[in-house]
């Protein structure tokens, strides 16, 4: 067995969020691999480090949106609310970092600037913003899916005399809105959470809305002792049920078709799911709402009615109620008193669909020639989702292939996990995996475990690279496109489709077959000795 050149470390991980923390524990502590983690932030947390805007909160119940890998961890941690707010999730991730002694192998305040495959040495050479060069046999991307904020598209923004804040890069010291004239652009999940809180503080809040959203009640509450104990006593079953559910939550009330029941029964199901909160209306009502326009119409109309009930001014309600696209084809936001916010005297809704934002002036925002004077502008305009974080790392595969070129017409991956010409590079919750339509911590654990098993398998066979075959990747890309075309997603302008970024290829970035089907496929690939991959060593190779 001819040994390849020896890299500095076995594994290089980017990101110290949910992925990086688990990956470090898994590779370093459970597999004995030398591992280094890099993060641009000055502490752990990833998404939950950056998104400190008022109202930031998780949309999946915290007992489910949390790590399952350590029984002790899940038994000892106690969530104070059903859906934890950002500070508590950050506290949890800090607890994990301390508990597993992770910080000592994380280099903070350091960005990855290039990631280049060396085909001779058979490892990755990574350069960082602190001038370091590190080589590693395996590269794990935990760079996240919603971590590169969209570049503001508003001319004049640099000349604004007041303060400008980005929800995804919020100041640690917080922002004092008291008595100020605040404008917020964007009504996605971030905007909706922030609007509800900022309105309580600001002198006046002007909301610039381009596309209304179908937001539904989150149903948050302080945790109930008895329920928490019940969850802890049944964690194994709950985690299994979550992993076997389309969205990675242990909901089990979904019915077949919204069109197969009477109007009254349908209404009863919608009411129950609406009251129960979370993503139940979306994912635990009727199976066909993401696939059948007529079925979707029933739930879309239901939400419009509920919005109208909550907003006093009819014209404002008309603007807030979406009608141009089906429910859940944009990521559905969850809310608490969002619609009631528009009944406040200090809140104004401005429609920027019909009268778009022309420019930002030194004094405020100008829409259709009308100037709105402001002291503060909050941008809740979203992210270059899924591919943005990967393209920001300067990845270069075999023979100088740049990731930008590989992704010119949209992402190309096998299982959303690996890419042809990029050996030993694992995309944790990458594009073309269920990731953003799965419960993220569980999705992350699944992918880190896949990478860990793949590496263990290489080592057991005295091999040192794994890479998808071009054919397997092509088939996966086509398969993902086919799955998407069977849903209502492709016709809506959403970040799922890359449609929120001017010039980004319009392809579905997510695997839409659901987590259980996806997980079965990954398990089958492993069972068939890494079907669709080629595994090589310095002297040998094996194609599966
Ligand atoms: P989203 O969901 O992408 O929302 C961004 C919002 O900003 C959305 O309402 C956009 O309107 C609006 N936007 C973006 N660009 C503009 C311009 N140029 N003019 C006016 N309005 C604009 O991002 P979020 O941060 O809220 O949520 C991201 C994910 O984080 C979320 O899905 C969860 O998974 C957590 P548009 O709809 O494009 O008309």
UniProtKB/TrEMBL annotation:
The keyword Hydrolase applies. GO terms for molecular function: endonuclease activity; oxidoreductase activity. Its EC number is 1.14.13.-. It is an enzyme of class 1 (oxidoreductase). Gene3D superfamilies: FAD/NAD(P)-binding domain (3.50.50.60). Its cofactor is FAD. Pfam families: FMO-like. Belongs to the FAD-binding monooxygenase family. PANTHER family: L-ORNITHINE N(5)-MONOOXYGENASE-RELATED. This is NAD(P)/FAD-dependent oxidoreductase. It comes from Rhodococcus artemisiae.
